[in-house]
Structure formats: structure tokens, C-alpha cells
Design a protein that fits this description.
two-stranded antiparallel ribbon, 5 strands
């Protein structure tokens, strides 16, 4: 399989070996939406104009998930903020598309299961753990200051931090180091501005979804 995209990396890290998500659906989906936008920003495909996400380069990336989102942004009738796009994109369809790409790449398999023996569900157990192991090793090296982050690794760390899943996946981390990683010299100021907006949008989307769920069950 080709080098992992940011959403593929995020999905792998937050999917257990048995195919179950390592976090709730709202967090997972918001993080994936942020990951897609982050990847497009790193590729120079989107940028910010004020607070609005705009397409800079509409050329295809070669990845169906990224190209689909890029086309959606380009076709929007009006410019939208990162928060709006995270909320709009962070749905089941994006999750299914990212998982499908990992299945097609041979990293995961797809299994139909029943929750409580009644409700149908789909799980994505590990098929080839090599790419995820390399990803985890590279992130662990960055968090231990053994190596400098690549732009994509820094983006993944930033998204894990934004969704409060970094510590769960990599143990105790130095918060000051994480701030340094996510605001370092690995990307241009314009790209980092986009990613900061995406991080905040992901956090706000998770908080809003959690609040709505709590209110509906109280």
C-alpha cells in the first residue's frame, strides 16, 4: 500500500486489532473530518481566507477519499469555516470511505457482526499490522524526542491531542512537548493556521455532539 494519508493513519490508530473503535463515534468521525482537511492543507490543496476554507489547487491527489472531499469543498455554493466542514464531513459516510480504503489496501478486513446478538454492525479487524506498527514507532520516537516530526506525523499527533486520544494511545505525554510539536517549524505558517482552525473545529464538534447526546438521554 502507498504511504498512509492522515485520515488513514488516524483511523488505524483508533481502531483496535479486533476491529472495534477505540473511541466513541462522535470523536472518531470529527477527528477523521479534521484529518482529511489537514491532509489537504499539507498538500496545498486548501487554505484559509480569513476563517474560510478555500480550494487552492483542485488537482486530484490520487486518493479517492481526499479527492471526494476536495470536490465537495470546491462545489460548495459559499465559503465555509473549518468548524462547518468538520461538522458536515464528520459523518458515517466518511468513516466508511476511509475504512474501505484501508480494506482495499490490505491493512484491514471487513466483518459483519451483531451487537448483543441482535443489531448488525461492521468491524474492521487488523489484517496487516506492519504499517500501523511503523506509524506508532515513528510517533513514539517523536514523543520521546528521538526524532523530529514529519508534517504528516505532526498533524496526526495534533489531531490525537485535539480529540483527547493521544494519551490513551501512547501513554503519558509531555504537554509542553506536544504544543511544541504541533506549533513547530515542520510546516509553513499558512498550513499551521489551517491546522489550528481544524483542531479547534474538531474539539467544538465533539463537545457539541456530546452535549446533544447527553441532553437527549437526560
Amino acid at each position: 500500500m502507498a504511504e498512509l494519508t492522515v485520515p488513514q493513519a488516524f483511523a488505524l490508530l483508533l481502531t483496535d486489532a479486533d476491529g472495534r473503535r477505540a473511541t466513541d463515534a462522535q470523536t472518531f468521525d470529527a477527528g477523521l473530518a479534521g484529518a482529511v482537511l489537514a491532509d489537504l492543507a499539507l498538500r496545498g490543496a486548501v487554505s484559509l481566507e480569513g476563517k474560510d476554507v478555500r480550494v487552492v489547487d483542485g488537482s486530484t491527489t490520487g486518493d479517492p477519499v481526499l479527492d471526494g472531499v476536495l470536490g465537495t469543498i470546491a462545489a460548495a455554493g459559499a465559503p465555509r469555516k473549518a468548524k462547518w466542514w468538520v461538522s458536515r464531513l464528520g459523518k458515517r459516510q466518511l468513516r466508511d470511505d476511509v475504512f474501505a480504503s484501508l480494506v482495499a489496501g490490505g491493512l484491514l478486513s471487513e466483518e459483519q457482526r451483531k451487537t448483543l446478538g441482535i443489531f448488525p454492525s461492521t468491524a474492521y479487524p487488523e489484517r496487516d499490522g506492519g504499517p500501523e506498527a511503523l506509524l506508532r514507532s515513528s510517533i513514539a520516537d517523536v514523543l520521546a524526542t528521538r526524532s523530529a516530526p514529519t508534517p504528516s506525523t505532526a498533524a496526526v499527533i495534533a489531531l490525537l491531542d485535539a480529540t483527547n486520544t493521544l494519551r490513551k494511545q501512547f501513554g503519558k505525554v509531555d504537554k509542553a512537548l506536544v504544543r511544541e510539536i504541533t506549533s513547530g517549524n515542520w510546516a509553513s505558517p499558512a498550513v499551521k493556521a489551517v491546522l489550528e482552525e481544524i483542531q479547534m473545529a474538531a474539539v467544538m464538534a465533539i463537545v457539541a455532539a456530546t452535549t446533544a447526546t447527553t441532553a437527549s438521554t437526560s
